[in-house]
Amino acid sequence: MSSEIAIKVENLSKCYQIYDQPIDRLKQFFMPRIRRLMGLAPTQYYREFWALRDVSFEIRKGQTVGIIGRNGSGKSTFLQMICGTLNPTDGSIQTHGRIAALLELGSGFNPEFTGRENVYMNGALLGLSRSDVDQRFDDIAAFADIGDFIEQPVKSYSSGMMVRLAFAVIAHVDADILVVDEALAVGDAFFTQKCMRFLRGFMKTGTILFVSHDTGAVVNLCSEAILLNHGEVKATGSPKTVIERYLATLYEAEQVVDGVAREIDPEPADLSAVPDYRDMREDMIRASNLRNDIEVFKFDPDQSGFGTGSAKIVSVRLLDQDGSQLSWIVGGEDVVLEIRCTAVMDILRPIVGFQFKDRLGQIIFADNTFLVYEHNPHSVSQGEDLLATFEFRLPMLPNGDYSFTVALAEGSQESHLQHHWIHDALVIRVHASSIDQGLVGVPMKKIQFNTIKSHDE
Q: Which structural domain range is residue 403 located in?
């Protein structure tokens, strides 16, 4: 294996034997042997379930790769085989370097042992001598920050404390490869930020396999992503591209009408009647040298998306308060996002929403119509148009490209059917910005100094 490769996976497969009842397991042990002795073909008393099938890829040293997929897609099985706690049915895995893993909550801990004893036990399992752990113990305890509970049995820990201790251990074993599986989902905000700072530092020299349902975290941390679905690799590439495929798989099972999956082929919206664009900057261009100049591109109906096709989004526009379509915006001003939809079939409880994302696919803000119309659904009949508008103050933004992803669904916030989802339907580009840090800028209403005299005077 090349010295530049940290993990190489070739045709990896894992099959489980599923027995309908306990007696079938006993039959499987004896009956095939008996039937062979009798000259008969053996009978199989189990069903095969392939958790992974023919998975192949390479991860280079220094890469941070996100593994995403729905529950049951094979992510945890794959990580267990990477770590050597589960043997593959077929295929091979080659790794180069020491691996430290944070898998299922509490895995690798003896609940009867104290936190201190588990630190030493885990250190030994990861290849550290007792003297190595002695030298690092204070740093591990400080990172975990669980106080006197370090001397208490782990069975008395909360889930958050368990994660704190487990992450503290893997952060101090000088690993070459870190495997993190949903570990940050149960931590508090302060500890999560501490872990993120550690991961960003580790990324400079080490390799990370990061599994999470938090697509924002995957986009934020990872340079590459892999999508697993039903045990197979469905997509690899940039986190933004792979997450778009992942979002489609989330709704895939629900996007069936009369037993047939339906695809979307939205027609371009008729923009011939749209009034001329207005440049919002004209009113402010002389007012400040710290303006936030933002160009607005036209709606692209041919962007990738998915849905049942029972309704389609035909137009997305940004307007000013007077209803004029905008070609340029100034950050910090009020705008209206208009989403026009056409019902191909009757829609009883429509939900129209959007996500505003940066170039990496991180969601800056988002909203939809559900809560406003939860108790008074606004139905739309076949052939009718539905116009949804969202009025808000556009934040001041750093330079770069941003986009609105828009969607039309039917149902409730928790359970709904996606009729049309369009990635990056409307793109904006920030050309000039006074923002030099943070994801967005919030215009301050007032900034001032006040001098307060000491009480001792």
A: 257-432
Question: Which two tokens mark 239?
Answer: 């986190």
CATH number at residue 151: 3.40.50.300
Token code pair at residue 34: 């008996």
Write down the residue that tokens 């299922």 correspond to: 104
Please report the pLDDT score of residue 252 as a whole number.
62
Query: Residues 6 or more apart from 344 whose CB is under 8 A from it?
Result: 309, 310, 311, 312, 382
Q: Which of 215, 247, 279 is the last residue of a domain?
A: 247
Instruction: Name every residue whose Cβ is closer than 8 Å to that of residue 196 and which is 6 or more positions away in sequence.
Output: 184, 221
Tokens, residue 108: 């690798």
- pLDDT the model gives residue 274: 42
Residue closest to 116 by CA, chosen among 94, 97, 140: 140
Q: Are 146 and 89 in contact (CB under 8 A)?
A: no
Answer yes or no: do 216 and 101 share one domain: yes
pLDDT band, very low/low/confident/very high, at 114 (cuts 50, 70, 90): very high
User: pTM for this structure?
Assistant: 0.71
